[in-house]
Amino acid sequence: MTDPVHIVGGGLAGSEAAWQCAEAGVPVVLHEMRPHRTTPAHQTDGLAELVCSNSFRSDDSEANAVGLLHWEMRAAGSLVMAAADGAKVPAGDALAVDREAFSAAVAARLEAHPLVEIRREEVAGLPPEDWTSVILATGPLTSPALAEAIRAETGADALAFFDAIAPIVYVDSVDMSVAWKQSRYDKPGPGGDGKDYLNCPLDREQYAAFVQALVDGDKTAFRDWEKDTPYFEGCLPIEVMAERGPETLRFGPMKPVGLTNPHTGGKAHAVVQLRQDNLAGTLFNMVGFQTKLKHAEQTRVFRTIPGLENARFARLGGIHRNTFIQGPKLLDGALRLKAMPRIRFAGQVAGVEGYVESAGLGLVAGRLAAAERLGRSLAPPPPTTALGVLVAHVTGGLAGPDADFQPMNVNFGLMPAIEGPAPKGRRGRVARRKLMTDRAKRDVQAWLTGAAAEAA
User: pTM above the 0.85 mark?
Assistant: First the structure.
């Protein structure tokens, strides 16, 4: 029997990598340290637990890069995308899921697979030498012992940044005589009807007072060794955005565009949106409201938002320190550690940002490890695809090993441009994106077809 691939970390990347290996016919041992050792952010011991948000973002595969990534992963038989599709909740044009149903679906499929063994144990140092194929998918909250072992082996310090978590509100505590249901521009999404968000309006004075309350609020203090750690720009705490200027939030998570208040018939100066968080529709997530405010301060400040005066919180926000490796310096083009090629990296610890991006990198790592185990030749997907550009980003294929490396969400700016002239303005951007997504779909299908032919 083929020796197993050992996968360390049962988050989205590790779960997806395990599934891809097992589906290719390669046995897997999936190591997850929870519940024996927990993290500052996780609340359960479930596989593929969603910590920060329940949204997989846009599902539009023709005009949005993350929607394209969804499409490519579905084409590759992704476990994460299948579980997400089965647990989706209304969220406009985004794909959002019931957290518990999603995690349970991932776990059930892996537990039932005959080639997957799940071990609840911490890998506290470098994997044993007799583990000849390893995928480290330990996420941004890698255990200190393993992180230190990686640093000692590579001779390079891991970089770090802070990530924040948004509060969740019980929907029956929202005052619907003030709030209303509407998606921006009435745009329906998967399973939605164009009324997928709750909207809480603020006038000019209320908005100014709210911004000042955020700036003045009592916040979590950092330890000395944390003070120079940057935030990830795609997930800034709400009060950090407020500190950047009084209008920042109105052009960010509190933008009022595309929304009309049915109670007044007019437009609000700013709007706080809440997105459904579970299938039952009893919990709603405050969109874009990641925060480092202390818990008591969150309750006080967020209850000044019209419609949330009596809000009850199922979970308050928080902040945690994330770590990732300098992939362009440490990894080869197949996600292997140059100093120790038996070890691959996948997920956020490798330097991608976002749930879907983490799972996508896990998908590629799993397929590469399985092919290697079976003695087959498999190159990473080409950088014209969403999957391929993630690999290129974390391995230095885009900017080289000496570039200033930071975690990145998938985006069209990372992909090769379409050759030839295109219309200017918004129509031109739409046309170019359609050409890029069409090209990506062709190229990822060719990559998958080539892998299938090699396997046959």
Answer: no
